Amino acid sequence: MIKPTTPEPTIHSLFEPQTGTWQYVVADPSTHDAVIIDSVLDYDPSTQKITTSTADSILRLITSHSYNVTHILETHAHADHLTAASYLAARLAQTTQGGTRPPIGIGRRITQVQSAFGRKYEVPEDERAATVFDTLFDDDETFAIGGLTARVVHLPGHTPDHIGYVIGDNVFCGDSIFPPDIGTARCDFPGGDAASLYASAQKLLAMPGHVRIFTGHDYPPASRGAPVPWTSVSEHRERNVHLAGEVGVREFVERRTERDSGLAAPRLLHQSLQVNVRAGRLPGRSADGVRLLRLPVRVEGAEW
User: Fold this and answer.
1) φ, ψ for residue 62 (rounded to 5)?
2) Residue 300 included in any domain
3) CA distances (Å), origin 5, targets 2, 70, 169, 213
4) Average pLDDT over the chain, rounded to an integer
5) What single DSSP character describes residue 38?
6) Are strands 68-73 and 33-37 parallel, antiparallel or unpaired?
7) Residue 269: burial class (beta carbons within 10 Å; 0-12, 13-18, 19+)
8) pTM value?
9) C-alpha dihedral over 126, 132, 135, 139, to 10 degrees?
10) Under 8 Å between Cβ of 54 and 83
11) Is the predicted pLDDT of residue 1 greater than 80, yes or no?
12) Taking 70 as the threshold, does the pLDDT of residue 97 lie above it?
């Protein structure tokens, strides 16, 4: 008897150039059920304006393919862009029969991140409770996307809450591994750990060589040109600048730590974390009816 092959999804890769973010719509071609992974809200720090043109392009794609979105997924609490998860959930609830709102899912360790950054930015407790997310996934938990099965894999290192999603012969790894000429993600955020990232990367590279690793970001050098959403496991084993060859954990940690020490903070670090621990919900209004985010101020020289 010939063993049936695993059903493969239809994958739409959408690149957001301002933050270098890859967003994904992953669908079961037989049922048209679909999920959205790591969506982006547009944010202009010079005007403090949030707009939805990037998220609206996802909605247009969903409409054009008659997809039924069953989940909106996050790989982690991003520190470089604002998630559009809550906006998309609200808009999809307006357009689906019965007003069904697709659940927003993330790994269960998001509570650690909510606690740490909620206190730092004084986010009200009801706006950073675990319940702002609809689903908190356990490690190795599975769920259905139509006739497809998705599996959750814990990939800590970049952040402690970080997870990936294995769907068919594809893994959506968020900010764990980048394209081979860039390497891996930074580990200098609170809760980040280079040794943990090395273990997560080895978990990915232990998958069969034909499996495609879809990344959360790309920052293509001029020598390469266009951003790429995925690279096979076998290509990463051969060419990833941080992982190829016989790189051990000690060497990786030394390289990653040295690299991270020279990196500037993400441009939207503070805005992103305050929105993303809320699952993309906007801050509540002040007494004057204004929505506010908290930003740190650095004083050079003596304070007064």
Assistant:
1) -60, -45
2) no
3) 9, 24, 10, 19
4) 94
5) S
6) parallel
7) middle
8) 0.94
9) -70
10) no
11) no
12) no
CATH number of the domain within which 227 lies: 3.60.15.10
Q: What angle do CA 73, 76, 82 make, to 5 degrees?
A: 80
Q: Is residue 79 assigned to a domain?
A: yes
Residue 282 has a CB neighbour count (10 Å cut-off) of 16
Which residues, at least 6 apart from 165, have a Cβ–Cβ distance to it below 8 Å? 35, 37, 73, 75, 150, 151, 152, 153, 171, 172
Q: Encode pLDDT of 82-92 as tens digits.
A: 999 999 999 99
Which candidate, 177, 174, 170, 146, places its Cα nearest to that of 240? 177
Total count of domains within the chain: 1
pLDDT value, residue 7: 82
- Residue 290 located in a structural domain: no
Which residue range is the domain that position 85 belongs to? 10-274
Q: Is residue 2 included in any domain, yes or no?
A: no
The share of the chain scoring above pLDDT 70, in percent, equals 97
The pair of structure tokens assigned to 193 is 């750990």
